[in-house]
Structure formats: C-alpha cells, structure tokens
From TrEMBL:
Transmembrane intervals: none
Listed PANTHER family: PEROXISOMAL 2,4-DIENOYL-COA REDUCTASE, PEROXISOMAL 2,4-DIENOYL-COA REDUCTASE [(3E)-ENOYL-COA-PRODUCING]
Family statement: Belongs to the short-chain dehydrogenases/reductases (SDR) family.
Source organism, top-level taxon: Bacteria
Name of the protein in its database record: SDR family oxidoreductase
GO BP, sorted A to Z: fatty acid catabolic process
CDD domains: TER_DECR_SDR_a
Organism the protein comes from: Aquincola agrisoli
Pfam family, one: adh_short_C2
C-alpha cells in the first residue's frame, strides 16, 4: 500500500496556528495541498504566518498560490469572535475538513504563589477556549468526514509542579476530546488529541524547560528516544490523524513524545531539579 496524504481541496483550520507547533501543522497541510486558515490573537503573528505560508514552495507552484491561505485575528476566550472567525473562513474555503485546536498559554508558578486570575487565565485560554473553538466550529464541520484534533499536553495526565493551572485545563481538554468523540461520532466526525512531548524551538519549550545545559541533558536523558521532538514530529501525526488511514481512530489522546510520558512525569524542569538536588 502506498500512503497518500494528499489534502488538495481540503479546508484545514488551525486555531492558534500562527506560531510554534501549530504553525508547523499549518505548514505541513499547506505542503500537502490544503487550503489553510490560521487564527490567533496578535495581528503581527497572523500576518507573519500568512506571509510565511503563502511563500512556501508548494504554494508558489500551485495555480491557487497565496489565495490558498487565510488568516484571522481572534481570541479563543471571546466566543462571538471565534464564531466570526469560522464564518469568515468557511465563506472563503467552504466547510472545514480538518480542525486543529491548539491555542494555549502557560507559565511556571507554584500554586501557593499563583493569583486567582493567573489560574483563571490559563483555564480560560486552554480549556474554555478549546470549548469555544470546538463549539463554534461545529456548524462548519464537514459532516460526515471532518477530523478534529485538539493539542493537549502531558500535564493532562501527569501531575507537574508549578503547573496547577495547565494540568487542570489540559485534563479538561482530554475529556472534552472524548465526550465530543462520543457525541459527534454518529455524524461521521472523528475527535482526537495529540499530546506533544518537549518540542524544541517552541514557546512552550522555552517557558517550561530548564534553561541551562546540565538540566537540558538530564531532560533529554529522561526521554526514552533520547532526543527532544520537532514540530515536524507533531505535524506528521496530525497529517495521519486527519487522513483516511486514521478513519477508525476517534476519542484517542495520543502521546507524541518519544515515550516521555512513560517515565511517569518528568521530561522537564521537575526531573532536572530533582536530579540537581540529588547530586548536591
Ligand atoms: N507567574 C505568575 N503569574 C503570572 C505569570 C507568571 N510568570 N504570568 C502571568 N501571570 C499572571 C498575571 O500576574 C495575571 O494575574 P494578576 O492579574 O492576578 O496579576 C494573570 O496571570 C494574567 O496575566 P496577563 O499577562 O494579563 O494575561 P494575558 O492574557 O495577557 O496572557 C498568559 C496570558 C499569561 C498565559 C501569557 O503567557 C500568554 O499570552 N501566553 C501565550 C503563549 C504561551 O504561553 N505559549 C506556550 C504554550 S504551552
Ligand atoms: P506557542 O507558539 O505560544 O503557540 C500558541 C499559539 O496560540 C500561538 O499561535 C498564539 O498566538 C495562540 N494563542 C495564545 N493565546 C491565544 C488566545 N487567547 N486566543 C487565540 N490564540 C491564542 O506555543 P507552542 O509551544 O507551540 O504550543 C502549542 C500547543 O502545543 C499548545 O496547545 C501547548 O499547550 C502544546 N504543547 C506544547 C509543548 C511544547 O513543547 N512546546 C509540549 C506539550 C504541549 P497569539 O499570541 O497571536 O495569540
């Protein structure tokens, strides 16, 4: 069997798709011929993403060219704004074949030092924002046939220090994934989630990974595959999940982490900190 991951003529919407992991996913779908919409809060991120996607060689060669990319500014915390973003994109490219919901915010902070607003802001973006995206996308999803992919994180299942907000929010994202797989399966919509490990070069990696070389070495050593991930690693899984090869996969939360979650918890600061303490 030859794998065909051609998404020509398909509409792929990546919420939070202007930087990092999600932008890597948007790039992969452009490469595979899709019409891609990206959305996030900051106009300069949206503009830069649209320009970079439009300049990709696969688009420069296609008759559709830059017209195959659409960008829109919207904050996932604003339900109506999110709805307008989908309306605009669907008016341009038609029903959504693939929805990626990956907007998130995070910072490291001990629970006892975290303000109520600090906790709320992460839950608002990661969990309530995911609901807003999924709920507002629903009328525009191709039924049957759409594939929905949420971007979760290892914190959804594995407790991590300084991550009370993100642990709680991403656990909610996993359950939202499973519930919507139950509710939407009958209409031919598959709902899954990808749980990335530490992905080098991204904002999440910069924020959560210990900055010094020794800690990084310990963090790599904690990954069974002995390397950090790349945005391509995640994008490849997204392509597969969106394709007919995953036609019987729904309600799954799939780690893409080099096996990191198996080592109960610690590809990040926590392991590095403990090992430093043990060595001292
Ligand atoms: N430590 C402790 N509290 C922090 C904090 C930190 N490093 N960063 C923000 N907060 C608190 C703020 O103090 C504020 O609470 P307060 O009003 O009680 O003082 C609350 O969080 C909201 O901060 P604010 O900066 O107003 O929120 P925002 O909506 O502008 O930004 C964030 C949201 C904080 C999540 C911001 O980091 C962000 O936009 N992140 C997106 C990118 C990202 O995190 N990517 C990685 C994905 S894994
Ligand atoms: P990132 O580059 O900061 O990506 C976050 C994206 O979401 C940006 O495009 C950002 O753009 C957008 N966004 C943030 N808040 C938003 C809001 N309120 N409304 C709309 N868009 C918003 O971070 P990343 O590290 O690549 O993370 C991407 C996803 O992977 C997240 O879901 C994260 O939890 C997950 N993840 C990352 C890692 C990792 O190692 N990096 C590991 C596990 C899981 P704007 O600022 O323009 O809004």
């Amino acid at each position: 069997m030859q794998l065909n991951l051609d998404f020509t003529g398909r509409h792929v919407f990546v919420f939070g798709g202007t930087t990092g992991i999600n932008f890597g996913i948007a790039q992969a779908f452009v490469r595979q011929g899709a019409q891609v919409s990206v959305a996030s809060r900051r106009p300069y991120n949206v503009q830069a993403a649209v320009e970079a996607l439009a300049a990709m060689p696969s688009l420069a060669r296609s008759p559709e060219g830059a017209a195959a990319v659409h960008g829109v500014c919207a904050d996932v915390r604003e339900f109506d704004e999110v709805g307008r973003a989908f309306e605009e994109a669907a008016a341009r490219f038609g029903p959504i074949d693939v929805l990626v919901s990956g907007a998130a915010g995070n910072f490291l902070c001990e629970a006892k030092a975290m303000s109520a607003n600090g906790f709320r802001v992460v839950v608002d973006i990661d969990l309530i924002g995911s609901f807003n995206v999924l709920r507002q996308a629903y009328p525009h999803l191709r039924r049957p046939g759409a594939s929905v992919i949420n971007i979760t994180a290892p914190q959804s299942a594995v407790p991590m220090r300084y991550q009370a907000h993100a642990c709680a929010a991403k656990a909610g994202v996993d359950q939202l994934t499973r519930v919507l797989a139950l509710e939407w399966g009958g209409e031919g919509v598959r709902v899954n989630a990808i749980s990335p490990g530490p992905i080098e070069g991204t904002e999440g990696f910069r924020k959560l990974m210990a900055p010094d070389a020794v800690a990084r070495e310990a963090a790599v050593a904690a990954v069974p595959l002995q390397r950090f991930g790349s945005t391509d690693d995640i994008a490849n899984l997204a392509l597969f999940l969106a394709s007919p090869y995953a036609g019987y996969v729904s309600g799954a939360v799939i780690p893409c982490d080099g096996g990191g979650a198996l080592d109960s918890v610690k590809p990040t600061l926590e392991r590095a900190g403990q090992e430093d303490a043990a060595a001292a």
